Amino acid sequence: MRFHVLAASVCLLAAARGQSLPVGEFPIDTAVVYAPASWPEEYPKVAFDGTNYLVVWADSRWDDHIYATRFSPEGRTLDPGGIQVSNGAESEVQPDVAFDGTNYLVVFTCANNGFYDIYAARVTPQGTVLDPDGIPVSTRQRNQSDPAVAFDGTNYLVVWQDDSSGQYAYDVYAARVTPQGTVLDPGGITVSAGPEREVRPRVTRLGTGFLVVWLDKRNGNDDIYAARVSSAGVVLDPAGIAITTAARSQDVPNAAWDGSNALVVWQDNRTDSVDIYGSRVTAQGTVLDPAGIKISSGPGWQFEPTAAFDGTNYLVAWSQWTGRPQDDFDIWAGRVTPQGTVLDPAGFVVSDAHNEQWYENIAYGNSSLLVVWQDERNEQEDIFGARVTPQGQVLDTAGLVVAAVANEQWNPAAAFDGTNYLVAWEDYRSGEYADIYAARISPTGTVLDALPLLLVADPEDQNRVAVAFDGTNYLVVWEDERQVSNDDVYACRVTPRGAVLDSGGLAVSAWSDDEEGPALTRGGTNCLVVWEDNRNDSRDVYGARVAPDGTVLDPDGIPISTMTGLQWRPDIAFDGTNWLAVWQDSRSGQYDIYAARVAQSGTILDPDGIPICTAPQSQWSPQVAFDGTRYLVVWEDPRNGTYHVYGARVTTDGTVLDPNGFCIAGGTTTKTNVAVGWDGNDFLVVWADERSGETQADIYGARVTGQGAVLDSFPIVRQPDRQTCPSLAHGSGSQMLLAYEGWTTCNAVRVWGKLSPLPGTEEAPNAGGRVLDVGPTIVRGSLFLPSALLSTRYSLLTPDGRKAMDLQPGNNDIRHLAPGVYFVREYSAFSAQQSELSAVRKVVVTR
User: Fold this and answer.
1) Where are the alpha helices (DSSP H) in 580-693?
2) Which residues contact 182 (CB under 8 A, 6 or more apart)?
3) Distance CA 764, CA 757 (A)
4) Element (H, E) at 11
5) At residue 597, does pLDDT exceed 70?
6) Buried (b) or exposed (e) across 329-368, using 16+ Cβ within 10 A?
7) Residue 821 buriedness (CB in 10 A; 0-12 / 13-18 / 19+)
């Protein structure tokens, strides 16, 4: 397996799609490792442009979209991370690709309000997507799906199966598309519309036009039919050409052209086995091999053939089940001459790695053919490939990772040790399964561990990490699947200097049933770890104290809540005397927010739980922080039709001050992934906000006083694509570190950080004035001021007292200002008299 490492300055910080660079945000891990994806990649197709291949596939990294990569004839992936070809609001699947001499055309099925349409996009040989919003090829009523495409030297022909009638009596339709992306037949061309189903169409060039092949049920069995379509879009064989009507079923047709004739291939069940057959068809529509040519006669069953011509012979590849005990499907191939002679009657192995390989496709390059396929050797669908010479030699017997992706980083958590921060996350650089990595960050935003710290690596998953500082070391906890059959809670300590003390991890809870979703915080001498526990065949909340030396003081766990129903997604905070554990609780038949206080001795002070919020509908994913006097519990709440952010204050004696909760962030858009911290003055509540669109999420925040007043709401991170899963850590003074998942130009989710206030930003009182209570926020060239009373006026002044500009509540464009120190002044009335100045704050404008 081949991995690649790339400097992050190229991948992470290059501007994407013409959008601006991050402002104050920084990548925490700048090393990028390319490996097989940790999500499904399916249905690969390939074409050649004279220099490189373009491999396309359906990719589920964020929903289902079409991705591509250029692949060199030398066996190298040129676009690690992939090129996003489609960008629709719903899923896109079933791609195909062809080359016109200048650009590629990628076609695919696009979901649209419960139905499917056919879309396309052009891609240059340099990997630029010319049609990022897609070209609608067919948006007829109901479903069009399973497209294929070929080029005849003038235009493309896109074919698909069409269910416009709504009776699932699929017909075969087509449309021509010019190299400039114009659809010449927007209503579609009817290729075959018989009384029975015609499905799985495929197309190849044939002379000056095209040959379309499909599976046809007109005779009661599954047969293979075809029709020629001229370059003008005329169907020359409206009744169809019977390629084979042999006994039993024939399925999954495909075709390739050798410059004179086409070779149609299919899987054939005319005997008690499934074999690969083929037949040649002339440009005049004559079937030269009406009985079929048996291409494969090896052991087992053969399925889903594909074919390509290398200038001398055809290469036919298929997925073969050999009857071995593992029941694996492997990739096999064989050569066929233009005269119909099978050169490899027993076939030869292209790939026989463990687990399944299928959905293969072929294209011919300058000196070899590239076979690509969907591969499950890593127990996950990846795209692999191998080069095969015209002589039938497989050059890459172990297979090559074609769709290599940047290692994903998910679910960060952060803590502060009094000097620096530690951010930990789950990392997929080893492939399908996540390991736990971490890095230290200084208060100036410097990443102190250029190579992140590996906390635990195991063949199975480690995820859902949490971290706290115990007064001596950091304690990092996570959900661990090393026992395969169940999830456990493990931990390790990390010193402030970055030394990992417990290599492999300490078992906090490793019962025979699942323990998941840990959270923790320090309290007094020890840390309290809480998690959702399934030992009683129900989700309960358990905890255990961990001493600074790594000793688990409660190896059997402390049952914090074992009420009827489900208790899960716990969080924890400490008030100086006791802990407060909060969780999502279904004892009432819906999810409510409950809590319980836990003494430092491990005693549960509220065994029945404290109902924090039992409002109608369900409340989700509570988080909690303490400000020195009271707790603030926040959660996701759908009571108004969409998920908003709500909160409630709780005293140290367990009294809920806001039993119905109060709205922190409302509006019409979904808000999720809520987190809360205390910055030394106020609570800071942050969340992922979809106000920019369903496929876009940004990080927003609000400050909440200990009296429950919501001071303001403001954007924190607004970058392209999605930013989610925020985590907060309070540093020195009022500084906060935000860690979050953010999209990168590597087309992968990576862990980012942002400090507030930004390093170098300082506030200072003016003589005779006070520090401005509600401070400004600078985001992306805008100075944001929260809503103010109508009697309040703001100005931005230079250090010598000159007015640089008037400010209004909301966003103020400051991109025209020179970098330097400025003062925001608040006036108590609409007056220019400085004697009426009530407050001032210094800010630093940087570039």
Assistant:
1) none
2) none
3) 13
4) helix 8-11
5) yes
6) bbbbbbbbeeebebebeebeebbbbeebbbbbbbbbbeeb
7) middle
What is the C-alpha separation between 664 and 559, in angstroms, rounded? 32
DSSP string for residues in 787-842: ---TT-EEEEE-TTS-EEEEE-SEEEE-TTSPSEEEEEEEESSS---GGGEEEEEE
More confident: 416 or 11: 416
Q: Which residues are within 8 A (CB) of 751 and not within 5 positions of it... i.e. 6 or more apart? A: 27, 28, 29, 409, 410, 412, 423, 425, 739, 740, 741, 742
387-388-394 Cα angle (round to 5): 95
Is the omega angle on the peptide bond into residue 757 within 30 degrees of 0, that is, cis?
yes
Query: Helix count (H) and strand count (E) of the chain?
Result: 1, 67
pLDDT at 5: 32
pLDDT category at 14 given cuts 50, 70, 90 is very low
Name the amino acid, one letter, at 236: L
DSSP codes joined into one string, 534-548:
-TTSS-EEEEEEE-T
**Rg, C-alpha atoms of the chain:** 31
CA distances from 1 to 389, 398, 667 (A): 21, 8, 49
- Cα 218 from Cα 665, distance rounded (Å): 60
> CA–CA separation, 632 vs 706, rounded Å?
8
Listed residue (422, 430, 507, 502) closest to 461, CA to CA: 430
Pairing relationship of beta strands 770-771 and 837-845 according to DSSP bridges: parallel
Return all residues near 4 (Cβ < 8 A) that are at least 6 apart: 33, 34, 77, 80, 404
Distance, CA of 216 to CA of 222 (rounded, Å): 6
CB 222 within 8 A of CB 214: no
User: For residue range 717-774, what is the model confidence (pLDDT) as tens digits?
Assistant: 988 788 999 999 999 998 999 999 998 877 889 999 999 886 643 333 333 333 334 4
805: exposed, middle or buried (C-beta count within 10 Å: 0-12, 13-18, 19+)? middle
Task: Please report which confidence band the pLDDT of residue 302 belongs to, taking 50, 70 and 90 as the band edges.
Answer: very high
Tens digits of per-residue pLDDT, 548-557? 999 999 999 9
Rounded Cα distance, 336 and 661, in Å: 73
- Pick from 726, 807, 415, 452: which is nearest to 574 by CA? 415
Residue spans of beta strands (DSSP E) within 311-448: 314-321, 329-336, 348-351, 357-364, 369-375, 382-388, 400-401, 405-406, 409-416, 421-427, 435-441
User: pLDDT confidence of 832, banded at 50, 70, 90?
Assistant: very low
Q: Residue 573, by phi and psi: left (phi above 0), alpha (psi -120 to 50) or beta?
A: beta
Contact assessment for residue 129 and residue 85, using Cβ atoms and an 8 Å cutoff: yes
Cite the beta strand spans of 22-142 per DSSP E.
26-27, 31-35, 41-48, 53-59, 65-71, 83-84, 92-99, 104-112, 115-123, 135-138
Count of CB atoms situated within 10 Å of the CB of 427: 27
Residue 779 phi, psi dihedral angles, 5° rounding: -135, 120
**For the sheet containing 558-561, what is the strand order?**
515-523, 526-533, 540-546, 558-561
What percentage of the chain reaches a pLDDT higher than 70? 89
